[in-house]
Amino acid sequence: MFLDGLSTVISVYLIAIICTLIELWRDFWDRREGKLDEGYILKTFKARESLKNINNGISLGESSYKTALITGGDGNIGKELSNLLLKLNFKVCSIGLHNSINSKNLFFFETDLSDEEQLKNTVRNVKREFSNGFDLVFLNAGVMLHPYKICKEHELHFKVNLLSQVFLINNLRSILNIKENRILFISSTTSRAGFFNENDINKEFWKRYLNGYKSYADSKMLVNIFVDQVDKELFPKSIFISNHPGIIPGPLYRHTNGLFRFAINHVLKYIARDSHTGALKLLELVSRDDLRSGAYYEDGVDASYVTESVSIKLRKKLYDKIMKEVEAY
Ligand SMILES: NC(=O)c1ccc[n+]([C@@H]2O[C@H](COP(=O)([O-])OP(=O)(O)OC[C@H]3O[C@@H](n4cnc5c(N)ncnc54)[C@H](OP(=O)(O)O)[C@@H]3O)[C@@H](O)[C@H]2O)c1
User: Fold this and answer.
1) pLDDT digits (tens, 9 = 90+) for 99-150
2) CATH number for the domain harbouring residue 163
3) Using a 6 Å cutoff on CB, does residue 247 contact ligand 1?
4) Which residue, 117, 148, 212, 213, has fewest beta-carbon neighbours within 10 Å?
5) 248 in ligand 1 pocket by Cβ < 6 Å?
6) Which residue among 13, 17, 69, 76 has the greatest number of ligand 1 atoms within 8 angstroms of its CB, and so is best to mutate?
7) Which residues contact 201 (CB under 8 A, 6 or more apart)?
8) What range does the domain containing 124 cover?
9) Taking the mean position of all CA atoms in its chain, how far away is CA 157?
10) Helix (H, G, I), strand (E, B), or coil: what is residue 201?
11) Domain tally for the chain?
């Protein structure tokens, strides 16, 4: 047990360091070529809409309105993404703890995703206010390295990062099945350090906690597995993907140990990817014409082999376990 926990901590830091270096390298060249400019990405996004891949053959630009749902819309990446969606004239449904964006096109539903009653109430209100469904969904809310906390039978990372957001879309199915849409779960490259075996699937599954690193990595691996296994018959009009947005210093790292927090939020901050670039890259990805439903992307590159490192038999079992749990909410 102790060794499992320790090896996850070491893996998470190694993965994060390697990813940061790769992202620095990619961003350096992309920036030189102007591919990270806001104008360039928004123009690309609009041009892709004209390719009519979303919204049942009608370009979003042509439809009377376009709608996006975002969780954690007040977070570091979420706020940038919400502002970009507003710039693209989306009507934004923002679900989360706080909101600091003042716009007539942003509709905020205050919701603690660790509280099932609040979540159910939000589902009812969202169905009423957005009865014509959504074009884009960003499941972005997340917690990392949180001290052990149980919320009604579920450890907090599982509850917020996975179960409540699966509950949300599962219970919005009636409106999500109205028109073509794309559903993007924000995962993490640290899902590479998440692992399961058959013996893990027991009564205590949702309460397990070796340390915050393992719980975060496991929750993100389960996000990838959900996306990989999601039943197309339940969501016939949706393309599902998960994606690592980049290593982006900010409040997500608030529970990291002091030394790393300082290094990430006060040193790396000046060289690593920022939240604006992270949000632009998410928009670029979600609008691509060649998206493969079920895939896990790392910084825009298909890395589904990470999810596939878990056997197909176990992935199916884990998907069933997730669905069983959210149906019992
Ligand atoms: N930043 C990175 O390096 C990185 C790397 C890989 C993956 N990611 C993923 O990217 C996503 C966004 O990360 P970020 O860097 O923007 O982090 P962030 O600033 O901490 O944003 C996370 C958002 O989730 C919200 N949230 C947390 N607990 C919640 C709850 N119980 N109910 C409702 N909302 C809740 C937060 O609200 P409060 O701010 O009010 O707590 C915040 O708005 C996360 O899923 C994260 O795991 C980030």
Assistant:
1) 999 999 999 999 999 999 999 999 999 999 999 999 999 999 999 999 999 9
2) 3.40.50.720
3) yes
4) 117
5) yes
6) 76
7) 317, 318, 321
8) 2-327
9) 13
10) coil
11) 1
